[in-house]
Amino acid sequence: xxxxARLSLNLITVDHxxxxxxxxxxxxxxxxxxxxxxxxxxxxxxxxxxxxxxxxSSLCRGGFFTAPGADDDNRRAVEQAAELGAPVxxxxxxxxxxxxxxxxxxxxxxxxxxxxxxxxxxGVRLGIEPLHPMMVGERSAIVTLGEALALARTFDDPHxxxxxxxxxxxxxxxxxxxxAAAGGLVAGYHVSDWLVPTTSLLAGRGLMGDGIIDLPRLxxxxxxxxxxxxxxxxxxxPALARMPPAELLADIKARFA
Amino acid sequence: xxxxARLSLNLITVDHxxxxxxxxxxxxxxxxxxxxxxxxxxxxxxxxxxxxxxxxSSLCRGGFFTAPGADDDNRRAVEQAAELGAPVxxxxxxxxxxxxxxxxxxxxxxxxxxxxxxxxxxGVRLGIEPLHPMMVGERSAIVTLGEALALARTFDDPHxxxxxxxxxxxxxxxxxxxxAAAGGLVAGYHVSDWLVPTTSLLAGRGLMGDGIIDLPRLxxxxxxxxxxxxxxxxxxxPALARMPPAELLADIKARFA
Lengths: 257, 257
What we know:
Chain A is of the alpha/beta class and 257 residues long. Chain A has one domain: Alpha-Beta Barrel (TIM Barrel). Helix content of chain A is 37%, strand content 16%. Chain A contains nine helices and eleven strands. Chain A has a nine-stranded parallel beta sheet with strand order 3-2-1-11-8-7-6-5-4. In chain A, strands 9-10 form a two-stranded antiparallel ribbon. In chain A, helix 3 packs across helix 4 (101-121). Chains A and B meet through loops of A and loops of B.
């Protein structure tokens, strides 16, 4: 794959568009791969994406193993990924209930173990995504790449892997060592940028080049693991809704290249 | 020391009071130790704190090694710590300039190495404080306890140590292992709590018990390193300014116990 051919647009970036708008605009812009979120889907989504000639790199998101009903919801997420032809279901693993991080981590491990056979039956790989530690209280007890890799290794199953998101992991002094040992466990790679000043915990991500993440270096480290799949652009920032659609997609392509 | 005897009030918690007010109120409340910040000091501060019968646990803060003029400013901070009788100068090490975290970390290591002999001459220990990774862009390239400990070890000098702040490190899956190997390197311990929902990157800390940090467990891990010095309460939250002073200090004492 050439560099631009690896571009996938994670559709949370354009969550202010409908899925039909996003599909049509990506196809028109020559962006051949997308990654929808579950709340963007309806019964027509898989057909619509296929009809536009687009591939799906992943579905966001399963996980939240510490919440009631997680197992049923995660099996449904696996089915949705399979319907879309998404090779990966991204797992945002869920926060601790109360203050017991160790218990949450054990609950997450057990939940993934229960989900794995179902995912394997559907040909969907589970991508454990470590989130930034600032999201530990509300979104994920898994907050380092090292922890995500160690967890994935415990299953010793090709359907368990990790998703590396530059925004969530770039700060980690162990990043280089962890990636050097990641082998075939990388199931996906997401890019955006960390803005300075940092003004928002949730929606303050920047377009590539606007922040302080050394994305070329990180791309090289991820590539060196053997991962040669799609690179998802996933930028969560309300300011993007103010850009004209064609201009936004052209800007993303230019920055990606 | 009994538990309450270890309480030190880090005066950023009451930055809305003048230093004379803080000293008077702590003495009245039976809080025997304080930790001022440099911007709170004037020529009378050391005399005033001593006259009130208070001890000083640390001075906040030196560091910012990646900024121009850091060496001069850090030597001045060491002198101020010595004047106050503070055994520890807390180092907030500074962010990367641009996106090069490795370069920033090297600059920080070199800066501490240059400062150490001066600190030793003044009887002041340098406490490298890892900050939460959400502060990497603006405050500190040192964002994990493991990294701070590894850095402190490189100097092999009793005047180099680390400061453990519960708020900055509680999320870390390696925390238990790092503390188990910390030995005598812990130079200080700070407590506050991580609120859920998490609404602020900078000033959203909670009083102990209002958030999700398992503080009793963390205290036990810190104590097991052999650290038996002051425990600083350091809560940065503008809501505290709305509490009547005596009530705030009584609340802090009750939560601490």
